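I am writing to request your help with a piece of structural work I have in hand. The matter concerns a single protein, recorded as an amino acid sequence and a row of backbone structure tokens. Could you please explain, in whatever detail you think fit, how the structure tokens follow from the sequence? Thank you for your consideration; the sequence and its tokens are set out here:
>
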Amino acid sequence: MTDYFSETYLVARERFRAAARAAGASTTEHVNPVGLGPDGESLSTDVAWIGDPTASRLLFAVSGTHGVEGYCGSACQLRLLTGGLELPPDTAVLLVHALNPHGFAYSRRVNEDNVDLNRNFVDHANPPANPDYAEVHRWLVPGDWSGPARAEADAALGELAGSRGLRWLQSAVTAGQWTHPDGLFYGGAKRAWSRNVLDEVVAKHVRGRARVGYIDLHTGLGERGVGEPIFRGGRDAGALDRASAWYGPELTRSEDGTSSSTPIIGNTATLVADVLDGDEELTAITLEYGTQPGFEVLAALRADNWLSQSTTAAPEVHDSIKRQIREAFYPSAPDWRDAVIARADVVFAQALRLSTSSSCRLRRRCRASRAPAPKSAPGCR
């Protein structure tokens, strides 16, 4: 199943577009004006619609909200396009590939402005407050990455985890912050380009559909190789019960402590809910694939953040950090990649089968996936 995975953004994009065309999809592209990718390629978010344009039921899946995580999400989307998908009447599929193409192409989780897109969907005139982040910022962004400042910062984070608890530290770091542009999980001071793209896509393709199953594909948090469906909403009273019916006992919630993720603010599902008129049924999840222990993932994020601001990093240091962040969000191990695809088969089939009163199936057999075991660790999302 590793054949679905690509090693560069450009290859992933070309494969997605080719598979979409072969599946009879209508496609559009949104070119990011920030500049070109590392191979001189344009940086684009690509959108594919498969099925009846008037369908009332829609499976909507997004990859690359967090740039480098797009390698995994792209593979899941490629599998869906090429794995023998059959849609029942009145059902369509909408795929957004590489919502954050700059981060995807340059192996960064954030966008071209160091913005975490999954914290950008807020009112920037009145951004949320996260005072706990200020307490940890200096330790997340040390002055060096191989000297005494890094050692001091690591020790301080360890002490905070011991005294305040891992869950407190995870929440302080990952909930989102809008005060430190050079920091981690920065939600930005304005609407990001990618947010405007998603807004346009949802307004054009999603508004007015009676039932929408939304899946945002992510990596970096939770048990290795396990795809955890984390409930992200739907604002009608039945949304949680509906999501539980679709995804079963494996569904988790950040708000009640069953998820490997602590609550976050400003995620993509917020925009989908905001753009819908209110009569539609939205059932939204993050499908989160675990990769490495939380502190290792956090170390990769801190290293990449330091590298993005360094003017003196040697080429070998640059290459080492880029390998580190790739492994943290896109492991090269074949067993991990096989588990990703097997789990994607299950979750996409669940969403398609249960979002409609008709039956639908994937020709290829879906393997069962065990439920995630939530862990308190300062990972991502």
Observations:
- Confidence is low (pLDDT under 50) at residues 356-377.
- The chain is about 40% helix and 20% strand.
